[in-house]
Amino acid sequence: MIESGSGGTDGMDPGNSRDQAEAMAATRRIMARAKLEFMGDEDAVPGIFTEEDREFLGDDSEEQEREDHETFEAWHSTMGTDPEAALQELRQGVYDRIMEGLKGV
Description:
The chain is mainly α. It is built from 4 helices and no strands. Helix content is about 65%, strand content about 0%.
């Protein structure tokens, strides 16, 4: 269950900086994983998978991935946006950036 920065477990508080930071970190890890998934190799498209991505995924695990998706879902639910649609849009943006990067290779 997601722990809210405000002490609850029912969701996240958009005004709470801890919840904001947790949601942002989860989103960055989801993006980094998508880059690896789409590229297959972190060096396949120069400049796409960054040192920051490596740092975000440094201690990655299946448990962390599950928690990231729960956090992402909780954040978007709290914000009144559809978590599935937000995830699809995020992944599409990552894919589009990779495809754009391939044009230069």
